[in-house]
Amino acid sequence: MCRYAWRMDLSQVALQCQEVAEADRSLTPLLRAKLDTCHALKIIDEVENARAGTRDGDGEGGGGTRGSPKNSKSKVASGGNKSGGPSLQTGDGWPVQKPRLTVRQAKGLATSRRIEALKYLERALGTVGTNRAHESFLEELCVLVWNCAFPLIQTHLRPTIHSAFQLASQALESISSPLLLLRVQFHFELAKCEEAAEYVQKAKR
Prior knowledge:
By secondary structure, the protein is mostly helical.
C-alpha cells in the first residue's frame, strides 16, 4: 500500500504506512524489500519536490531572493523560513532565513540523494533475487531503478549505477520479462559502464 500511495502522490498516507511497517520487527524478506522500495520512493519524491521548488523559487515572486523587499520583510517578521523550519537568529534577535543552495549545490545534493535511493533499490533486488513468484514486483523494481538512475547516466557517475543496472538486468533476464526495451537499455548502459572501466584500467597501466 505504501508504494501505491507514493505513486498517487499521497505522501502522508505513504509515510504513515511506512512508519507502521518499520515498527514491525517480524518482517519477512519480501516485506523488507518492499519497505526498502518505499524508502527509495520517499527519497525520489523529496528530490523531485526540491527540484520543483527550485524552479518556482527562480521565478518572479516565487519566494526566493528575487522577491520584493516588502515580501522579504513580511517573511522575517513572521519568524520562520519558507520550509517551516527554525530560523537563524541575528545578533539583535531578529530571525533571518537560511541561505539558499546554489544551483550547483542543489544538483550535487540531488545526485547524492538519488544514489542513496538506488542503494535501497539494489538491496531490494538482492533480497528478492530471481524469484519467479514475484515477477511483477521484480519488474516494478527494475523500472524504478531505471527511472531513479536515469539522471545519473553520465560519464563520471557510471560507477555508481553499474551494480544496480547489473542486478536489474539479471532479474529481468531470469524471469524472461517482456519489457524488452528496458532490458536492451540496461545492456546498452552496462556495456558503456564496462567500456569506461576498461579505459580507466588501461590508463592506470
